Amino acid sequence: MSAYLTIFDTGEIINEEEIVEFINDSGIKYGFQTAKKKISELNEKKQFGKPFLIALSDKSDQKVEFQFLLNRKNFLNPNLTLDINNILNKEVVKENDAIINVITKDSELQSLNILGEKFIENSKASILIENFIGENVYYSTGKNQICAQKSGYPYLDNKNRICVKSEIIITKDIINKDLHIICDLIVKGNIIDSQVVVEKNLTVEGEICSPEKIVFVKKDLDVNDINHSIILCKGNLNFKEKIQRSNVNVDKFVFGSFNSEISESNVQAGEGIIAATVGSNRAEKTELEISILPVLKYQMSELGFTEQNYEIKYENRLIKVLRQNFAESSIKIFKIVFPNSYFRILNRSELINKKQESYSISL
Fold first, then answer.
1. How many CA atoms lie within 13 A of 265 on its CB side?
2. Phi, psi dihedral angles at 78 (to 5 degrees)
3. SS3 280
4. What is the pLDDT of residues 54-69, one digit of tens each?
């Protein structure tokens, strides 16, 4: 494709700015540099009343090759209903990971307009790249790569654009699985007897019940019930109903709803705990603590480092420094506290021996 311009001799001074404005209004955006080379090769001279070349498309400059860095056969299929089997062994990317190398001869050409001013010429190559970019990806001009904007699972959508799915929704129970999910996970059912690691947020509309396995969430966890489970959460934990017979370790806050209950469990948080009821009529011990990095502390205990080995030994030396960080930390129970409920914030602790309404402790 080419474009020509004819200038007639009217006897008046030619206004070059008007010509530039006319070319811009005509929609011609590229091909000026190629046209200049062509005119030079043919040694053509511009003449009044005769069309002369101003833009020429060089198809060789517009070729774009998309070189996939991952196996497309292992991409998610967006047309299938998502379940656990559909995401196992699929390709995954983290934020800013490269997915595709973009190979062009000249995706952007520096050109001169008719006034001799330099500008970056928009090419068809850049349009092709733009049309290939879908949800949660971006084009890095410096690397000439299409990269992930969010962590997740790459796929090609119905328009053949590269995309990344940053949220997985499972409508069924997860039972007897070993999963590592790189993005947000929403489970409409329950997690049962499964080892689950979620790099982002986890929402479970039902119950988590994994007595011999760990559910590890790198950001926030929202759940209805936790029963007979070990939970590690590096963000906040929000629960609606019950935490019972569980070991729960949360680096930030534990928030219970107006009807929430914690019983026969050890719950440790790094910043604060709020719940409605603690303990039960069975009088089994329930422990709630504000402590230093609960998730790391649990992981160290699994390696053989117990509290007696490091936390209590050094806590008194650190207490003056830690008090400032824990000044606003507290445990608040706004309905009922049953006997044999134990509360602790650093070196301050209390065991409740009688049933009582509401309770709070802070430094």
1. 26
2. -65, -15
3. coil
4. 666 655 445 678 899 9
pLDDT for the residue numbered 118: 42
Alpha helices in 66-181 (DSSP H): 84-87, 124-132
pTM of this prediction? 0.74
Give kind and range of the element (H or E) at residue 323. helix 311-325
What whole-number distance in Å separates Cα of residue 363 and Cα of residue 350? Answer: 12
Beta strands in 218-285, from DSSP E residues, in sequence order: 221-227, 230-233, 237-239, 242-244, 247-250, 253-256, 261-263, 266-269, 272-278
**191-192/174-175 β-pairing:** parallel
173 vs 152, 169, 188, 201, CA distance in Å? 21, 11, 7, 18
Nearest to 322 by CA among 342, 356, 304, 347: 347
Say how far apart CA 339 and CA 316 lie, in whole Å.
28
Q: Which helix (H) or strand (E) holds 301?
A: helix 294-302
> Does residue 135 contact residue 155 with C-beta atoms inside 8 Å?
no
Contacts by 79-87, CB closer than 8 A, 24 or more apart: 79/158, 81/171, 82/168, 82/169, 82/170, 82/171, 83/170, 83/171, 83/172, 84/170, 84/172, 84/174, 84/177, 84/179, 87/153, 87/168, 87/181
The size of the chain, in residues, is: 363
Average pLDDT over residues 326-346: 89
Distance separating alpha carbons of residues 79 and 85, to the nearest angstrom? 15
Tokens coding 98: 């490269």
- By three-state DSSP, how is residue 117 classified? coil
Give the amino acid at 298. Answer: Y
Q: Which amino acid is at 139?
A: Y
DSSP β-bridge partners for residue 267: 248, 288
> Any residues with CB less than 8 A from the CB of 330 and at least 6 apart, and which?
272, 273, 290, 345, 360, 361, 362
- Give the strand pairing for 52-56 and 2-5: antiparallel
Say if residues 249 and 231 touch (Cβ distance below 8 Å).
yes
Cβ neighbours, 10 Å, residue 72: 11
Q: Which residues share a beta bridge with 167?
A: 184
Question: One-letter amino acid identity for 315?
Answer: E
Q: How far apart are CA 356 and CA 278, in angstroms?
A: 10
Nearest-10 Cα torsion for 175, 180, 184, 186? 0
